[in-house]
Design a protein that fits this description.
alpha/beta, 35 helices, about 850 residues
Length: about 850
Amino acid sequence: MADLDEAINADRQAVETTPSDHPNHAAMLSNLGNALRIRFETSGAVADLDAAIDAGCQAVETTPSDHPDRAMSLSNLGNALRTRFETSGAVADLDEAINAARQAVETTPSDHPDRAAMLSTLGLALRTRFRRSGAVADLDAAIDAARQAVETTPTDHPNHAAMLSTLGNALRTRFRRSGAVADLDAAIDAGRQAVETTPTDHPDRAMSLSNLGNALRIRFETSGAVADLDEAINAARQAVETTPSDHPDRAAMLSNLGLALQTQFERSGAVADLDATVQALVMASEVGSAAPSVRVWAGRAAGGLLASSAPGRAAGLLEGAVRLLPELAPRGLDRPDQQELLGRLAGLAGDAAALVLADLSAPVDERAGRALGLLESGRALLLAQVMVMRGDLTDLRASHPDLAKRFTELRDLLDQPPPSSIGFTRAEAGSAPVQDRKARDRRRVAAELGVLLEQIRRLEGFASFALPPTAEDLRGQAGPGPVVTFNVNDYRSDAVLLTEQGVTAVSLPDLTPSLVVANINAFHQALADSVDLDPDADRGAAQQRVREILAWLWDTAVGPVLDALGYSESPADGQEWPHVWWASGGLLSLLPLHAAGHHTSHHDPRYRSRTALDRVVSSYTPTIGALGYARQHTAASPAQAQTLIVAMPTTPGQSPLSEVAREATQLQARLPHPILLTEPDAETGSAGTGDQIPTRTAVFAHLAEVTIAHFACHGSSHPTDPSQSLLLLHDWQQDPLTVASLAPVNLDHARLAYLSACSTTLTRSQQLLDESIHLTAAFQLAGFPHVIGTLWEINDTYAADIANSFYARLTDGEKHVDTSRAAHALHDTIRSLRDQLPLTPSLWAAHLHAGA
């Protein structure tokens, strides 16, 4: 390491003392970048890697496109960018790495001695992208590039072994996809050659051993040859033993050893093998310099192995993994990258909470409180990242206005959409100077914000500034009513209840994940069948199936919880209704907890006491912290209420909504100071006198000034990327109003958003259910403490009636609106419609209230 530190100092001095227009300046920058990347790979210091990429970008930008050194600078930059992707998960880095590596290869003569190294760099980046995207063309191209690199490099060349290892990894990856045994055998041959031709004291030998061990383990799983497994364990163990304890790669090598030992345990059943497996995985999770994704995976794997025999220890391991989740998806990453990384670890917080509750050695209250803390800190992380940054700045502005101003600037920069690429080509450099690019770099902004937060928290009275809510903060949210957090899990299912008295848990043994999934599928199929236009469709049977699932939801989840809370019957006439907040989380977010119950046409009061609608007023919140955030926005009331009504009776490319015009007219007459944005008449092209066209830009321009925003339009929940779920306005095909587009919006006067559109509270990506990424949550994040949303497609006519009835209960004859009663107004509206149409719950159960 002393040699490496001295090398970096020498390279840095060379760069600093050489004029920027000197012919050798770019090459010196590239050398500095390489040295910094190597130090990162040895120490895990992210600042070194960022500095390496900066140096590499400058080297490329300042080298003429026809200069012979430019190809190597591009290849070096590609290496650094790929390394950063593997550390942070930013796919833009990986795409830029491949572009750089490909340019390097294409601009290097086929007989150039450096071309083989450039081919190997390209192959490594392409294989990495295949593992992220699954694009087979990338994997085949990776193997071709890696094979060319090996074939054109002399066997005694210092880089030959590393190229063999790269080829072996790519072949092993293709075997896992295609099952072609020839690829696996070739991978092992390449891996063995790599190990045999690498000196025993070479720093690359450990990784070659670990890669070989992986391939041998996989062949054992295919062929059952015990010799392969023994050799795999031996190779993996050697890799670990020859890697320094603080080296970032040691975690991956320990994980690979753990996989090999686990395979042996599954074959032998020996407790010693299990113990050795867990020990390796635990050690991997504790390597502080390793990428958070590797550490989280190792901790979760170790906890899973101990779950049945030692739930207490397993819970501790999973708890450690949950605490690392914020590092896995920092704010400096683009939103899609954050979602990808968190989606891979879906359910981790639920597993940890379930195992905490299963550990009978701890007191009941302690277990419940700890489980709630895990569910709070491991769910809705992307929402929480923004919410904690949008707290009250009054005290900071009064005491330290300069810090408050800079904090706001950096926070708002991170809320903006990120740049699409690094832009290292000379043409881009001409229009976007390096310093300008740095100013837009999300990582730099996030790093500067982190330093600023540390500075603020050192000030007297600001130690908890922009930190997640404490346990005491969470308990304070139970004053207006209990908060119920559900956890449906393979280990066990529970509801964790937060009341003014403390935290308790209710076991829900019949609420198994498989049964919940089956009922969710049946429920949504029944909803679709209930609106089937086929004259032979049995819509009555579909509604009956909906009612049966609502009854099941009551019996297994909602009923036991309300009984435990003491809400066993309907409140007496004139008595204030109790209010319950549901933090459904995960699978249950796809079902209407507020509508659970035995809904029949029978008028016997005993039947009506077995429904949530007849016992409590219901609201939803992603987490208790999100509920506290919503309540922060109810403190100050605007001097004069204004209403924005967005009406789309017709929508480009969509079916018309015949009742939207009636809905808008009714609300104009009922709500204070209405501003109407409505779609132009299809025949005349006119939106009406004084009316504006409802584009996203127009809507955003008005949101900052209104108290109530009502949208009557189509809504769509994206099947794979919930951040792209949208309200369909006039320009939805060009400039859509999506969840992601609402991220920068931060409103001061907003009080109520009513989304009279389909599926605005639905997240269809199962991997991201815990994140609560949908339009309802997005409007809450934007500053609306009360949001009315929907869980599925709604009926146009009844949607207009529900909206009119809701606002009738919320306003008086003078058009004064009491938004604090939003949950009660919706409850009364839905309960009244349920009484009229008890056998058709699909028409009234979709609407819900979220927030304060």
